[in-house]
């Protein structure tokens, strides 16, 4: 395909589906037009590795271009967690600043790139001034890291020479920023009297002796009382960091113990070819936060009576926590083990909620860490069964030719998503508004449809889909439990003012799409449709971890007779 006369959507499609051919097309580019520059930023945003390597090797002069906010391709790569940042950095201007004054170190501090510490060292070595540079708000990179839980990177910034005392335009030091966030460990690291963090680093395990020696040097000339206070602070900081590393090691051990258990090998069976004359089986799993544990246990009970249940699945679709569950099933983790993993996730993530109205209730750092530990580098192209997860992108950002919001189904039912990592997909689909900040500008799939089978009909029956005969399709749709009450109390709504609707509008939208999806399932499939909605007997919020024991009890005791009979008739044969 020549670039001349090609449609933007055709170029994007080629980039998404065949990077080798896209490179041949890109070789024809001379000096990119504004539209082609936008496509250039799209390439770096979507982490198209082969194309990025080609650009760095053959078209490195393109790395100087900036988008409407002053971001270069390098900054876009950092922002989106690319593994090729150092390759791009070697060919880029490291002193560039965006329109709001952020430099490359600001971006690194807020990024999710692999080996972030090593990349930071490289950048600061090349451009030391970036360490103390302030953006238009007066924030240095240390101010940015103060808003996170990345304690080790904060220590590294200090070791590289970052100043604790520099104030932003609101008169806030990095330590005060951390205190404002309620992050007391970060505050302890960044407050002025903590002067010894520079040799607490995972790369230097022998630092206990050198720390003592350094303290002697730093405390020379201080008063006896001052020495005692500072030594106490150092010991407290060392203890806090040791405890943090201990917790991280303990978490890894817990996860690895589960991940090393025997996998459900039947989920690895290749089912890339679809026989339209055979029954096509769909498992759909709703979102619901901690209630995902209930869904796991119900699936485990089903598997005990129907050993071929997983092997017979042709399509798994999930939303929010359901996206995590179906992704784990797709890589062979058994339902019981999924339950154990979701229990760990719930206990690790839903802790220390913030009460600030301008902040999400929880941080997603730990969720991201755990999901990346579980899924590693697994991508959509690595999954054998058909797969679909929904989410909603709130902003395509200014580098896009047509800035907009957009619904997404990450799936292998159509081309274009082969290189998407499962960890990224799950984080996007699980970023519930007000609970978590958007991830890569994506929010919870429940904003689209919390019962994801409702998004599959066009893929299954449409002219651009599989064109299956509905009579050959069966679907088991599993909910995260039916709350009680399951209605919007009209007495609370009254005349329907802002105050009355404020706490009810989210459930209203959720219940509406859920209700219609269930109805459409019956209309499409008739008796080949089964919706299982185990009664909870109360309302359980998605972050009520104290209710996990009750959820496990409900899941173990709920009557599955109807499910067993339906599976025997429509699923097992």
Describe this structure in a few short sentences.
It contains 26 helices and seven strands. Strands 1, 2, 3, 4, 5, 6 and 7 form a seven-stranded mixed beta sheet that branches. It holds the Pfam family Patatin.
Task: Name the descriptors.
single chain, 573 residues, alpha/beta, Serine Threonine Protein Phosphatase 5, Tetratricopeptide repeat, Cytosolic phospholipase A2 catalytic domain, 3 domains, seven-stranded mixed sheet, 26 helices, globular
The radius of gyration over CA amounts to 26 Å
CATH architecture of the largest domain: 3-Layer(aba) Sandwich
Report the sheet with the most strands, covering strand number, pairing sense and barrel closure: 7 strands, mixed
The coarse overall form would be globular
| β-sheet strand percentage | 5-15%
Structural class by helix and strand composition: alpha/beta
CATH class of the largest domain: Alpha Beta
- Count of helix runs: 26
Q: Give the integer mean of the pLDDT values.
A: 86
Number of strands: 7
Instruction: Give the oligomeric state.
Output: single chain
The CATH topology of the largest domain, please? Answer: Cytosolic phospholipase A2 catalytic domain
CATH superfamily of the largest domain: Cytosolic phospholipase A2 catalytic domain
Unreliable stretches covering 5 or more consecutive residues: 195-227
Work out the count of structural domains.
3
Percent helix: 40-55%
Kindly report how far apart the N and C termini lie: 48 Å
């Amino acid at each position: 395909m020549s670039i001349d006369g090609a449609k933007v959507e055709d170029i994007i499609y080629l980039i998404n589906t065949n990077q080798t051919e896209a490179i041949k097309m890109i070789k024809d580019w001379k000096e990119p037009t504004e539209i082609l520059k936008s496509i250039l930023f799209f390439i770096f945003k979507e982490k198209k590795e082969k194309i990025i390597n080609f650009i760095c090797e053959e078209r490195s002069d393109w790395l100087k271009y900036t988008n409407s906010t002053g971001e270069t391709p390098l900054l876009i790569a950092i922002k989106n967690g690319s593994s090729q940042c150092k390759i791009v950095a070697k060919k880029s201007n490291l002193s560039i600043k965006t329109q709001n004054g952020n430099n490359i170190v600001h971006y690194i501090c807020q990024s999710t790139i692999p080996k972030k510490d090593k990349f930071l060292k490289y950048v600061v070595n090349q451009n030391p001034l970036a360490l103390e540079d302030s953006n238009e708000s007066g924030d240095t990179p240390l101010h940015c890291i103060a808003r996170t839980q990345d304690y080790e990177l904060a220590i590294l910034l200090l070791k590289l020479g970052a100043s604790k005392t520099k104030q932003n335009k609101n008169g806030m030091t990095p330590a005060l920023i951390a205190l404002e966030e309620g992050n007391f460990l970060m505050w302890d690291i960044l407050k002025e009297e903590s002067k010894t963090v520079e040799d607490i680093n995972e790369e230097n395990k022998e630092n206990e002796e050198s720390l003592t020696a350094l303290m002697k040097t730093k405390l020379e000339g201080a008063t006896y009382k001052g020495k005692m206070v500072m030594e106490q602070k150092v010991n407290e900081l060392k203890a806090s960091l040791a405890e943090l590393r201990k917790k991280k090691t303990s978490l890894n051990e817990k996860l690895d113990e589960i991940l090393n258990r025997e996998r459900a090998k039947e989920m690895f069976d290749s089912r890339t070819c679809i026989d339209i004359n055979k029954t096509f089986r769909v498992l759909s799993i709703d979102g619901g936060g901690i209630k995902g544990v209930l869904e796991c246990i119900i699936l485990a009970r089903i598997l005990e009576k129907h050993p071929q249940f997983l092997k017979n699945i042709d399509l798994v679709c999930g939303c929010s926590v359901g996206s995590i569950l179906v992704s784990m099933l797709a890589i062979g983790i058994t339902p019981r083990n999924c339950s154990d993993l979701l229990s760990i996730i719930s206990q690790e993530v839903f802790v220390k909620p913030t009460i600030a109205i301008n902040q999400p209730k929880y941080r997603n750092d730990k969720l991201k860490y755990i999901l990346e530990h579980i899924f590693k580098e697994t991508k959509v192209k690595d999954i054998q069964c058909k797969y679909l997860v929904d989410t909603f992108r709130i902003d395509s950002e200014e580098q896009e030719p047509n800035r907009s919001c957009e619904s997404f189904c990450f799936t292998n039912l159509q081309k274009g998503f082969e290189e998407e990592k499962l960890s990224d997909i799950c984080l996007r689909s699980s970023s519930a508004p007000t609970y978590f900040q958007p991830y890569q500008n994506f929010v919870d799939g429940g904003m689209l449809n919390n019962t994801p089978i409702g998004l599959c009909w066009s893929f299954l029956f449409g002219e651009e889909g599989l064109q299956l005969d509905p009579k050959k399709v069966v679907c088991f749709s599993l909910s995260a439990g039916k709350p009680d009450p399951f209605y919007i109390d009209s007495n609370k709504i009254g005349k329907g003012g802002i105050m009355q609707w404020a706490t009810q509008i989210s459930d209203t939208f959720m219940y509406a799409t859920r209700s219609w999806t269930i109805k459409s399932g019956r209309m499409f499939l008739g008796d080949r449709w089964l919706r299982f909605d185990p009664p909870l007997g109360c309302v359980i919020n998605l972050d009520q971890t104290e209710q996990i024991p009750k959820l496990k009890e409900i899941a173990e005791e709920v009557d599955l007779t109807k499910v067993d009979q339906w599976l025997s008739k429509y699923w097992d044969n």
